[in-house]
Amino acid sequence: MSVKKTGIFLLVLLVLGAFYYYYEIKRGAEREKAKAEAEKIFHLQKEEVTGFILTRGEESIRVVRQDKTWRIAEPVQAEGDYQANDQLLSTVLGATRERMLEEKNPDLEAFGLKNPSLSLTLLADNQTSETLLVGMQNPTRTGYYAMRKEEPGLFLISNFLKEGIDKSLFDLRDKTVISWATDRVTRIEIATPSLHLTVEQQGEDWQIISPLTAKADGRKIRAFLDLLRSAKVKAFVEEEPADLTPYALQPAEKRVTLFLGEDKAQKTLLFGKKDQEKGWVYAKREEKSPVFFVEPRLPESIPERVDDWRDRTVLVFDKEKITKLELASDQETVVVEKKGEERWELTQPFVARADKDKINNLLWDLYGLKVKEFITEAAPDLAAYGLDTPVRRIRLWAKDQEKPLTLLIGKKAEGKEGSYARVETQGNVILLREKDVTALSKSAADLQDKRILSFETDQVARFRLTYPEKTLVLEKEKGKWRVVEPEAASSTYWKVSSLLYKIRNLSFVEKVAPSSSAADYGFDTPAVKITLWDKEGKELATLTVGKSLENQEYRYARDAAGQVYTIKADFLKALPTEVSALQG
After folding, report:
1. Sheet (strand 539-548) strand order
2. I need a labelling partner for 325 at 20 to 30 A (CA). Which of 102, 214, 423, 442 fits?
3. 115 three-state secondary structure
4. Is the pTM of this model over 0.70?
5. CA distances from 193 to 197, 254, 297, 307, 455 (A)
C-alpha cells in the first residue's frame, strides 16, 4: 500500500473515531441525561422549591419553606416536621414515570383523575408551579394512574411514590412536645397537688432550692429532661380552645416550668387529665394554643414528692484518697490503714495484713450506699432513733484531711426493714436497707488477709510439688511452662497459671499453736510440699500440707516461717498428681 493510500485510510479512521466519540459517547451521555430528565415527574430543583400544596380529598395542606425550616400555613398555622417535609420533597423530585399509557386526551373519569383524591403542587420562588394529580390504583395493584396538570399524558407512578406523597396534616406537622434545647435548662419548677418543687443547676450539679435545701439527683433530672426532649404529640385535640376546664388544664393538674439560659426565659408545659378511652393525657404549652395528647409516662415521670428527685448518696468521698478506715461496734473496734499503693494493714484490735480486695469492696459499698428513706430533716431527740449511742460507727480518713467522715448507724426501724442512720455533719436522719447495714458490719477477722503465702504469680519461674511417691517440677522458659520432672514434657499455659492462682489464694481457716513434734500435724510424712522460686533461683514460698483433722474437712498446713494453720481439705483436689492434668 502506497504512502498516499495509507494516509487517506488513517484520515478516514480519525474522522469515524471523532464521529463515534461525538455522537455515541458525548452526545449519547447527553441523550441519556435528557431522557432521564424527561421521565422525571417534576423538573424543579430542590433549592427552587419554596413550598407545596397537598390536597387529599377535602383536606388541603399548604406548607412553606422559611430559611431552613418548614411551616404549615394552612389549614392551621404551625411548625412543620422538618424531616417529614424534606423527605416528601426529596421523594417527589427524584420520582419518575413508571410507564406512559396514553399520550393525549385520556378519559380522566375512568382513571380517577377527573376529581383526583390526591394532588401535589410544588411552588417555586419565580411564581411557577408544577402539579401532580393521582387517581385510582391500577387493576394489578402495581401502581397508580397519574398525570401532570400542565401536560395531557397519562402515566403510572409506583405504590412507593403514592405512599410518599399521601401524608396527613398530622404527618407533616411538628410533633415535638418542646422545641427548645433541654441542655439550656438551668432551673425547673414543678407544681402538682402534692408538691411545689424547685431545682436549680449549680455548676455541674443540681440543687433542690424549695421546699428544702438539699442536693438533687442530677441523673434523674437529666433523664426527665431527655424524656421531655424526645416526647412526641400523639394527637392534636383542639387548635384554639375557648375553655381549658374540660381537659383539666385550667388549673392544670401538673405544671412544669423550665428556665433557659442566663436570661431565664420561661417555658411552661401543662398536663391535664387522662382520656380513659385513648389512655393518653391532655397537655398544652402555656405560650401556644393547641391542646394535644401525650403518652401518660410523661406526666407520670413528674415527681410527686421532694425525695423523688433528691440525691440519695449517703457518703461523698474519693475512694482513691482514703488512707484509714474505722469500724466501731459494741463487740470491737476495727482499724485498717493504707501502708502503700496496694497494701492495707489491720492495726486494731490486732496487727495483721488486711485483704486489699475486701477493703476495696467495703469502700465500694460505702461509696455506693444509698438512702432507702429520708426520715426527718432535723432530729432534736437522737435517742428515738438509737443515734445517741449508735450501734455502729464508720469513720473514713482521706489524705490531707484532718477530720474524718463519720456515719452513725442506730437501731432498727420497726416495720420498715432497715436501720436509722445519720452522717455526723448533717442534721437529717435517714433509713438504710438492712442488707446494706449487714454488708458494712465487718469484723477484724472478716477483713484480715488470710492468704498463707505471699507472692505474685508472675514472679514464679519454677515450682515443685513433692508427693510421698512422686515429684512434679515445672519451669518457665521464654514465657512458656514446661514439665522437667518426672520427665520432660509440654504443658498448657492457662492450666499452670490457674494452678498458681489457687496456691496463691489459699486461705487459712484458723491459726494453730505450734507443737514441738512435726508428727502431731503430719508434717513428717506430708501429703504434699509446695515450693516456688523466682527467676533468680530465690525461694518465694513454701507450703507443707499435713494430715487431716478428725472431721476430715480440714488439714494442717505450715508455711516457711513455721506457722501452722488449718485449711480446707479439698485444696488437695486442686493439685495435679499427673503430668497429663497440666496438658491439653
Report:
1. 489-490, 480-485, 471-477, 462-466, 528-533, 539-548, 554-559, 564-568, 510-512
2. 214
3. coil
4. yes
5. 11, 8, 18, 16, 64
8 Å CB contact between 119 and 108 = no
Q: What is the mean pLDDT of the chain?
A: 91
Contact 409, 391 (CB under 8 A): yes
3-state secondary structure of 576: coil
Grid coordinates standing for 14?
480519525
Distant-in-sequence, close-in-space partners of 250: CB < 8 Å, separation ≥ 6 = 243, 244
Distance separating alpha carbons of residues 107 and 269, to the nearest angstrom? 54
30 Cβ contact list (under 8 Å, min separation 6):
none
Q: Quote the pLDDT of residue 103.
A: 65
pLDDT at residue 516 is higher than 90: no
First to last CA, the chain: 83
Q: What is the DSSP-derived secondary structure letter of residue 413?
A: P
* Sheet of strand 205-210, all strands in order from the earlier edge strand to the far edge: 214-215, 205-210, 195-202, 185-192, 254-260, 265-274, 281-285, 291-294, 235-238
Q: Cis peptide leading into 290, omega within 30 of 0? A: no
CA distances from 36 to 30, 40, 96, 98, 330 (A): 10, 7, 8, 12, 91
In a 3-state reduction of DSSP, which class is residue 284?
strand
Quickly list H helices, 191-304. Answer: 218-230, 297-300
Whole-number Å distance between alpha carbons of 203 and 132: 56
* Interior/surface letters 268-287, b for 16+ CB within 10 angstroms, e for the rest: ebbbbebeeeeebbbbbbee
Amino acid, res. 441: S
Q: What is the pLDDT of residues 373-410, one digit of tens each?
A: 999 998 889 999 999 999 999 999 999 888 999 999 99
As a whole number of angstroms, the distance between CA 252 and CA 236 comes to 18
**CB atoms near residue 561 (< 10 Å):** 6
